[in-house]
Amino acid sequence: MKLIQIIREEIVPLSSRQNLVLLITIACVFQFVLFYTPALADEAVNQAKSQSNIENNLIINDSISKDATIDSEAAKLINTAIASSTPETPAASSTPAVKVLKTSTHVITAYNSEVAQTDNDPCTTANGFNVCLHGVEDTIAANFLKFGTKVQIPELFGDRVFVVRDRMNKKHPNRIDVWMKEKHEAVHFGVKVAKIQVIE
To answer: b/e per residue, 40-77, with b = 16+ CB within 10 A?
Structure first.
């Protein structure tokens, strides 16, 4: 107010009406400056915060993307290293390794529990085992192996384990006969030559 009085009295002598207009004008200027400045300042601060948040999000997303790429590349390198350092195993790695005692090649045929193929008690083998009750195709007849000997025939039956429980006609000293439940399966099997493995 002192400034207004100095202006009014010394610099520009004004009438009372002009004084009133000057006062209203100055009041309006101060009102505008004092009222809008904090709002403008708040808006500027909010815009700065918003811009900062956007930039931070971009930096974080870029960092995450780079980390994911690095992790993906690291995983590939680790998998490659593991694959190259691990010796290859057969597809049937879940089956335990067997110790092969000896191998030999034989003529292999198949038979069923029929009187015409066996004797008057077709379900009972030479060592007294009932294949019909057992119902599993894991019995073989062989004259050159002891009862209870475990045998595999990988070329024909993969890793299936057979047990010697029966004998053949004496005219087949080196042949192996595989017991099968169904006659048509035995007929279809026919006569084959394959390597056998006697296992522990």
So the answer is: eeeeeeeeeeeeeeeeeeeeeeeeeeeeeeeeeeeeee
